[in-house]
Amino acid sequence: MVALVARYLVRAGREDEVAQALREFAPLARAESGCSQYVVHQDPSEPRRILLYEQYLDQRALEAHRETPHFKAVIENRILPNLEGREREVYTVIG
Predict the structure, then answer these.
(1) For the CA atoms of 54, 58, 63, 69, what is the dihedral angle to 10 degrees?
(2) Can you tell me whether residue 25 is helix, strand or coil?
């Protein structure tokens, strides 16, 4: 099992646009055969801050996720251009 934690800082004024794109994207990611969890959180006191928690069966499934047409269309083309910052951390299960 591989977990990915991503933190986004959205450009001011783009919060609703990014949130809507993630609402559209999340069900597509969850439907991927290697994805066991895809949860999007938004900081209620600072809506520019978004946290994604994702779990995949293995590293290969995570890599396949990044190659899907919906990842390229939504994440790369609609979300990333609207971010000021993006941090990503990958974890593996130890117990």
Answers:
(1) -60
(2) helix
Contact assessment for residue 47 and residue 15, using Cβ atoms and an 8 Å cutoff: yes
C-alpha 51/C-alpha 45 separation (Å) is: 13
Look up residue 26 and give its amino acid: A
**Tokens 């991927």 correspond to what residue?**
32
Contact 82, 19 (CB under 8 A): no
Q: For the whole prediction, is pTM greater than 0.85?
A: yes
DSSP three-state, residue 70: helix
Residues 51, 15: Cα–Cα separation, whole Å: 13
Q: What letter represents residue 33's amino acid?
A: S
Asked whether the beta carbons of 5 and 51 are under 8 A apart, the reply is: yes
Q: What is the pLDDT of residues 28-86, one digit of tens each?
A: 999 999 999 999 999 999 999 999 999 999 999 999 999 999 999 999 999 999 999 99
Strand-strand pairing, 83-92 and 2-10: antiparallel
